[in-house]
Structures are given as structure tokens and as C-alpha cells.
Specification:
Rossmann fold; alpha/beta
């Protein structure tokens, strides 16, 4: 990969990994992978931003993610599908170069936010196995269009090992245990 990816120049953007939304097609996988990413962010000190779409109706971020993210994580309630239209989200991302985006629903909020991030000049990566949609065709369409528009499509393990770079990383064993 030609883009320099480190914990210091990257952010994880969790999109709407909420109680009532995890009933999606890929719910178990999406929730488990989001928790792995939350734990990884905490250990490696990756900037973490989470959004919640209308939490009064859809519930808050799932417990396993909410209590695994770094203490410095920023949470934002939103009603727009593009998270960057929510006050404070772009500012919370700060000056990172790389944004790793994932969550629910792939073809709506993840897609619209990814497009806005590209327009804002970020290197954007969608973590495919940590995304979900109600319908598998919608999921595939969202992933395919993001990739066509320039978003890089990765998996959780690809992201983790790209951040670690080597088995000599001081947190390698701790983070590796999350995916075993």
C-alpha cells in the first residue's frame, strides 16, 4: 500500500453501530468486527469518532463497542445521513490524513459520509467486514460504488496489520489476540 497508515495519522469513524440497527443481515459479524476495531483503537491510541443516527428511536451505540473505545472517543448524535453534516464531526477528526469508515447502513450513511470525506481531501478506507445493510444487494452496491469513486476497501485484519507493521510492534500480541 502506497499510503502511509499509522495510528497517529488515522481515525476510525464508527457509523451508527446502534442497538436497533444491528438487526441487519450481517449483524453478528458487523458488531463483532466493530468491537475488535474499538479495542484496537484503544490499545493503539487511534483517534475515534462515533455517530448515532436518531438514538431516541434507534438506541445508542451497542454496549460491546461503547465500552471498548478509547476514553478520548467522541460521540455525536445525528439525523443527516452524511455524518460530516453534523456539527463537530469533521473537527473531531482533526488533521488526520486517513479515515477508516464502517458501520450501518453501508449504502446510505457509510456511503454518503465516505463521499463527503473524499471531497474533504481525506484518504478514505471502508472496512467491508465491519459494514452492514438490511439487504445484501444494497450492501454490495454501496461497497462497489464507494470503490469506484476512490474509497479503498479493506478488511479488519488488513487494517490491524497495516497499523502494526510488524510482529515486533510493542502491542502486537495484545492486538493479535482480538482476532484469534
Amino acid at each position: 500500500m502506497t499510503i502511509d497508515i499509522t495510528a497517529q495519522n488515522s481515525a476510525f469513524l464508527f457509523i451508527d453501530v446502534q442497538e436497533k440497527l444491528v438487526g441487519m443481515l450481517q449483524k453478528d459479524k458487523c458488531a463483532k468486527k466493530a468491537e475488535i476495531l474499538a479495542r484496537t483503537a484503544k490499545v493503539l491510541g487511534i483517534k475515534t469518532v462515533l455517530t448515532e443516527q436518531y438514538p431516541k428511536g434507534l438506541g445508542s451505540t451497542i454496549h460491546s463497542v461503547k465500552y471498548s473505545v478509547p476514553d478520548s472517543a467522541k460521540f455525536f448524535e445525528k439525523t443527516s445521513f452524511n455524518a460530516l453534516l453534523t456539527d463537530g464531526v469533521k473537527e473531531a477528526l482533526g488533521d488526520v490524513k486517513n479515515v477508516f469508515i464502517f458501520g450501518i447502513e453501508t449504502h446510505i450513511c457509510v456511503y454518503q459520509t465516505a463521499m463527503a470525506l473524499l471531497q474533504a481531501g481525506y484518504n478514505v478506507f471502508a472496512i467491508k467486514d465491519a459494514c452492514a445493510s438490511r439487504d445484501s444487494d444494497e450492501f454490495k452496491a454501496g461497497i462497489n460504488l464507494m470503490e469506484k469513486e476512490g474509497v479503498k476497501i479493506l478488511t479488519v485484519e488488513m487494517v490491524i496489520f497495516e497499523m502494526l507493521k510488524s510482529s515486533k510492534h510493542p502491542n502486537f500480541k495484545e492486538v493479535q489476540a482480538f482476532i484469534k
